[in-house]
Amino acid sequence: MTLYINGQKKFQTGALRLIPEDLLDVIVVNGSLDLNNSSRSYDLRANFKTVNKAFAHGRILNIDSDGIQSGSLTVVDTSTGTVKVVGNELEITGTGTWDETGVYSPDAVTRALGKALFMTWTESNDNTYLGFNSAESVSINTVLGHRMSSDDIYTNKTGAIGHGGGNETKVVDNFTPGSTHQYLFLLGGYDASEIPFITGDTVADFTRGAAFFIKGGDFTTWTLLWKVSTDNTTPLYPMLQNQTATGNLGDNILIPTLPLNVDTMFNPAYLSTSPDESDHDTGISDFVMEVVFTTPGSGTDPLDIRYRKAGTNDYWLVRITPGTLGTDIEIIEDNSGEVQRASADIDWATTTEYRIAIHVRGDSEQRVYVDGALKMTYTTTNTFNETETIIDVLKNSFTVSMVAVHNKTDSNWDTEISAATGGIY
Prior knowledge:
The chain is mostly beta strands. The protein has helices at residues 262-266, 411-417; strands at residues 2-5, 8-12, 26-29, 32-34, 42-46, 53-55, 60-61, 68-70, 73-77, 82-86, 89-93, 101-104, 116-122, 128-133, 152-155, 160-163, 170-174, 180-190, 208-216, 219-228, 237-242, 247-256, 270-272, 280-281, 287-294, 303-311, 314-320, 329-335, 338-344, 353-361, 365-370, 373-378, 390-394, 399-407. The chain folds into 3 domains: 2-39, no CATH class; 43-266, Sandwich (Jelly Rolls), CATH 2.60.120.200; 270-407, Jelly Rolls (Sandwich), CATH 2.60.120.200. The chain has 2 helices and 34 strands. Strands 5, 6, 8, 10, 11, 13, 18, 19, 20 and 22 form a 10-stranded antiparallel beta sheet that branches. The two termini are 25 Å apart.
């Protein structure tokens, strides 16, 4: 039998025979049996199973007595905040000012398809950032823009979850403040032309972008929050910080050395780079739908993106109308007659490419983003077409170069990720 403690082999003996040694290696991780991780290694592994202690600014955490089993974290505490271990979790208490309190890893992460960062975070009605940064710091102002990199998650005290790339925070979902969530930051997924990865593609060509997942609280299974198609920054550095002067708790920060299974985690439910105008059954009703189109040089004929379609006059749609002053993008419900549910004014440029993302979940969530910026939301308790899975795109004079539909939830993700089924978390 072979005994491992915190992933390291301690002894092997033929005398201790609970079961045949060729059937099972037993790994003891902080006093509990872990039957799944005998061969798994980590670039970063921090579970903070250590005595309560506080850390000073600049302290490098890289030993087991600091709660770090692999890799390292650097403490940032430049003012009156605190960073400490309390009850086997990392408690970060901010000062009310950004960038003064948190931790980051100085160990560079090279972007690759399926490279993953996991962490658990308990928000106490606070403003926080967590995820990947483009610099060795907790700063939210780096070379990539106002909200650190394109590979992070932002939460605030009102219960909004946002993605912070570029020049604004984009709210992508909501949560119950004070609850504990598990996060997964998954790198890659798109090639240089911003086409999503599917099984059979060359893995090395799909390092761009990222996907962000959440589980816990209101999210009973791993749920896709957001997908980014453009960013190709490398290397990246894990970080988390708390701005508010209340303690937030972080735990189980993991970066597996090997990428996750890309066929399980990335395949869209539907992908076409030459979409026609016929019905397509995606097999899912809760989704993130991406459509890349080029506006016509003239005219006002609309582009209709239809989803949850049950019949000729039984569906939802996003309508884009070029060459129009005022309202030129709408969420419409067609139930034997069109009813506008939300609208916005974009002022579409002629012969210009745009990328639209439509987030749909359950009977309450519809969000529409144009080139990454949130433009429309619609919330309803109407269960009309809640489970329909048909989509189509009526192009008229638009050029449509890609349609992709991604799951919002997928039982295969839980199987891949969960430690109970041989996964990591």
